[in-house]
Amino acid sequence: MRNVLRARPRKKPLSELESLVMRFLWAHGPSTSDQIREGLAAAHPMKDATARTILRRLEEKGYVTHDLDGRTFVYRGVERPENVAAGAIRQLLDRFCGGSVEQLLVGMVDQEVITPGELADLAAKIQQQRKQKGGLS
To answer: How do the domains of the chain map onto residue ranges?
Structure first.
């Protein structure tokens, strides 16, 4: 019988404000709505109702969860930042490159986002990590 890998269900993408809130949670750990609102006041002032709405949406999307401390919700991220970033890249690949990593990387070289040398260095690092982990060469 074949081993079939199942893709994780894709989460809805984050808005800019949702991303800002997530970055705060990753940097500061579990936080209340008030702590988040106050911590982001300089970068993006928001009303209490707005902060709570953003947190509720993040919870509905599966990015955060909350615990109760008395009657106060304390929010925490459920995904590591690199996992969220990888999911966002996957959505970009699907939307703009037909799911092709190669198409994305060629476009990045064409647009001088990454040089051919940097791409070669990255390929060498990936190869080295695979060897260290006993993976495929």
So the answer is: 16-77, 100-137
Please tell me the distance from the alpha carbon of residue 67 to that of residue 30, in angstroms, as a whole number: 9
Q: How confident is the model at residue 42 (pLDDT cuts 50, 70, 90)?
A: very high
- The encoded tokens of residue 61 equal 């999307």
CA end-to-end distance (rounded Å), the chain: 25
Place of tokens 């509720």: 56
Return the closest-CA partner of residue 98 out of 110, 106, 90.
90
- Burial pattern 122-134, b for ≥16 Cβ within 10 A else e, equals eeeeeeeeeeeee
CATH class of 16-77: mainly alpha
In this model, does residue 31 exceed pLDDT 80? yes
In 3-state terms, what secondary structure has residue 78? Answer: coil
Determine the pLDDT at residue 68: 96
| pLDDT (0 to 100) of residue 5 | 40
